[in-house]
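Hi W., the zinc ion complex you wanted:
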Amino acid sequence: MIGIDVLLPGKVRPLGTKPGRESTPPKKKTPTFLLELPLAVEAGQAARLRAHLEAGRQFYNAVLSAGQRRLRQMRADPAWQAARAIPRTHMQERRAAFTALRERHGFSEYAFHELARELRVSWLADHLDAVLAQTLATRAYRALNRVCVGNARRVRFKSRGRGLSSLENKRNDTGMRFVLETQDKGRQQGFLLWHDDRLPALIDTDDPVVAHGLAHEIKYARLVRRHASSPRAQGADREGERYVVQLALCGVAYHKPKHSAGTDTIGLDLGPASIAIVPREAEARLEALCAELRPDARAIRRLQRRMERQRREANPEHYDEKGRPRKRGKGAPRWKQSRSYQASRRRKAARERRLAAHRKSLHGRLVHQIVRVGNTIITEKLSYEGWQKRYGRSVGLCAPGMLIAHMRRTVASTGGTLHEVPTRSTKLSQYCHGCGKFVHKPLSQRWHQCACGIGPVQRDLYSAFLAAYLDPAADFIPSCAQYVVPWEGAEARLRAAHEQVIQRANEGQVLPRSMGIPRAGARLPQSRSEATQELLFLSSRGKVEAWKRRPEPPAL
Ligand SMILES: [Zn+2]
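Structure:
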């Protein structure tokens, strides 16, 4: 399932940030947070839920297909090219042209609701209430609109095998809804009501998160189906699926007392596999992102290779004598899936789910560590596309974009702000505050050292330092004067942060190469006297190897 914030942009808009581009919001928006409760579903109920979700899937596909036709017609309209030809400087005219086009071809959320009303007939109407049909139509519209405005290339239809994994309402008084009942001894019982089914939710009232959530007004409920690792997993039904209800609640999420927010301002520099954290006052840090995930990723890779072997084994006709896959034509034989292949695929899927959950918890931990120091955060806006091209694997594994999204939510819920500064205007990785010059560094150069006397300092830490002191009043444009005072105190802190990294490397932790630590024995230290000192110091602790890994700043 896609994260809630992707589906509901704007709903969790933090206080103190600019409202979106929409001019007059129809309703006053209130903050929303989610509470997830597992459902105890019996076999009969599960079968009915599956049927409803299948109806939802077919309905979604129908709306998506009809909508896609509308989108194609709209784009084929000569007026579309005419509207595109209007220069962007004539904003109002351009917008009016596109609005007229959308109206003519019925490409708007409202028009999709009309479409949903026409399509919700016969047996579909028995499964889906009118409001659920509307939310599905909205979902289809948003997917298509992303294609329309160029944020996505195509839409995906929901396949029969994967099905629809979630369905939500808009309100909590009709259709699918969640009710709370207080039973004797003051214990609360909650039920998801849908059609004639009453699905009891498992409520742990001792959990402060649950108690906090249930004390708030429910906006709407969402039913979510998740795959468990097997039918024997806890809470899973015959098909190996679990059901949970997500309640969208009015208010702000519970804050555990241990997760208090600090007051510092923090600069972040996020790399594909590393993060530099430089607060204005507290200690600076340079961390590897999600290093704990590497073993999981390796296990998945092994399973992938096994699946590849099993696929070849079962389908020799699809490969030529040299083992290369044959081109697939129209009359090509079908691919066969052996039982062992299917088992491997299930195992890989379970592994991947576990990896995703692990990553989420690591992200959460890091975010809370950062927010505890301060909740004003400045970072350069990421360019995912460029990153994915360059370092596909680390980006896929560490998901830095998800980390930022997580941070944005957490920071907002504590009343802080996350400033994302456009890289094009700041270019922090090229900037030197000593002389104010922008000099491009190649990726291999992990140090900032300038002829004006600044450095050497690890480049990610330096960028994060520059970000920490950017001034919102000056449009986040760096200037030499603003850094003179902070640099005096920061230089030592940045150095200390990098020394910690070296120490961890010495302890055997594998760190991304971007941190500026050459692999053991890669290079010898330049200055002998310094090396000896360090060697003596370390050998007293029995770490003679360490000096070999001493990072060297580049010679000018
Ligand atoms: Zn300089």
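The two ends are 51 Å apart (CA to CA).

W.
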